[in-house]
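TL;DR need structure tokens for one chain.
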Amino acid sequence: MLASSVQRSKPTPYPSKARSALIRRSVVAVLVLVALTLITIAFRSPTSGALHSVQGAGSTALRPFQIAATRVAQPFRDAYDYVDGLANARAENKRLKAINQELRKDAILKNEARTKYPQLLKLVHFVQALPAYPQDYRALYTEVDSFPSGPFTHSVEIARGSSTGVRMDSPVVSGDGLVGIVSNVYPDSAVVTLIDDRDSFVSARDLRTGVRGGIVPGSGGTLQLSDVPKQKVVHKGDIIVTDGTHSARYPDLYPFGIPIGRVSTFGAQDTATSLQVQVQPYANFGSLDSVAVLVPKNPGR
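>> reply
TL;DR here they are.
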């Protein structure tokens, strides 16, 4: 029994690779042929025919599903359009705000320049008309950065400093008259003490009568010409200017002839030895925009 042979069954044959490839090619060929046939029929009967009838029936059958799909998708489409439109609107709003801000800034700067130009022109003409200019002094034109912050503040800050030639004790004028004197200097700025400060003193004279005195702060925003003997004569409306230097040994800080103001009132009590001369200043200390610092050309001054 062990030596006897056993007959085995033949294995089931499997399709070869060539056969599978042949089947796939046959299917592709059939599909291409069907497609070409349908295209040919469609071109030969563009408006009617069996194919168009089948297409119409298919479209009619699928129409409810298309409508349902459209209705289901519509809220999502609307939500997407809303979010997209909102994002675009925000971006556009931000862009327009930036443009509006730039235009507003540009308009402010142009309006400021238009406002300051006449004042600067007036200042230049004023400085050029001073008796001591341009022989002994040079003018440094600058803007006022800060104004008096209260009734007890009598100084301003200007936008020039030692880096551009501003020196301590340099007279400062506006387009109307004397403003004050430089009391502190920094590299790019300086502090100007106004002549209405309680510690200010300016040697002055009446341009008409020659009466001399000292300009000190008065009452009610005015100035006072002090130390005027009672027997001296002044008149209402007389122009008061800086007195200038009378001694080369003791030079005055202010050159001669800078207008300060006009005499508004004067008088004296019977027991007084001096006249009380009130002077209305030319310069408006609360609205200074452009000023000029008068720096002596001679460094030894």
